[in-house]
Amino acid sequence: MSADVTMIGEVPIFALLDDEERDALAHMMDTRDFKQGETMFEYGDSGTDLFIVRNGRVEIFIESTEGEKIVLGEHQQGDVVGELSFLDGGSRTATAIAIEDTQTLCMDRDRLLDFIDKHPHAAIDLLTVVGRRLRATNELLRTQVSRNPNVEEAEMLTFGQRIADKVATFGGSWSFIILFGIAMAVWVVMNSTALFLKKYFDPYPYILLNLFLSMIAALQAPVIMMSQNRQVAKDRLKSDLDYEVNLKAELEVAHLHHKLDHIYERIDARLARMEGRNHNNDSDPSPLK
């Protein structure tokens, strides 16, 4: 039992409980075993139970609309499974399956309510932990759901890459073409007119000028290639971000479809029960007075 109390203390939602409260909570939990490949709960099931993995491994996954299996994570000894539905009483948001023989500590929602009745201040501890996790989730969504690829790429740039971008930007501009054209024209004119005065420093066919042009081209080419490689990496980052956004949108749409299907099934079952009761009432003759 002491090991179970320690394990409960490591569960995030029970982290602020004292030893007495953890011990009381441990006595309210049952042990449940799952064989390899056995499903603990499925997406859309009513979520009334919380599981703490005692030993074994549990896989959490969802399925896309195309039936593709998307693994959200694996839980091992000491990890908690199903806490979201356990706390809010809603349906399961994923499917859990034991990928090897697994033993868990199990507690249903009614026992949690009894525990809070006996330890009212423990509810504040639970709310505090849930509030912290909500803040962390909000921060994660703020930074991860929709990211600007330009900002993401700029944060990863090195000093050399920034210099390469500036050189490539200037080398591909009209400013560079005009300045370079003026410099070449001045060079040619100076050396052409100086031929008559015998004061030239690079006579026709301007070998020194050709040497400088070759050196500039030799240096400029790899710098431009560096900038192009960085642009390829930027495009890859943009495509990855687009994939993440599209995947989240698809999952949200699939989640809404499952919710609508679940609501339809409940309404259909309720209508069937009402029709059955009305049929029974119609078939029973009223007693004669």
The low-pLDDT segments are: none
CATH first level of the largest domain: Mainly Beta
The structure class reads alpha+beta
**How many individual β-strands?**
8
* CATH architecture descriptor name of the largest domain: Sandwich
Order of helices and strands: HHEEEEEEHEEHHHHHH
How many domain regions? 2
Integer average pLDDT: 76
Index terms:
4-stranded antiparallel beta sheet; alpha+beta; 8 strands; elongated; 9 helices; 2 domains; 289 residues; Jelly Rolls; 14% strand
Descriptive account of the structure:
The chain is α+β, with helices and mostly antiparallel strands and 289 residues long. The strands form two sheets. It has a four-stranded antiparallel sheet with strand order 1-8-3-6. It has a four-stranded antiparallel sheet with strand order 2-7-4-5, with no helix packed on it. The relative contact order is 0.10. Helix 1 (2-9) crosses helix 2 (19-27). It folds into two domains: 2-144, Jelly Rolls; 149-278. The chain has helices at residues 2-9, 19-27, 83-88, 109-118, 121-144, 149-155, 159-171, 174-193, 207-283; strands at residues 30-34, 39-41, 49-55, 58-63, 69-75, 80-81, 95-98, 102-108.
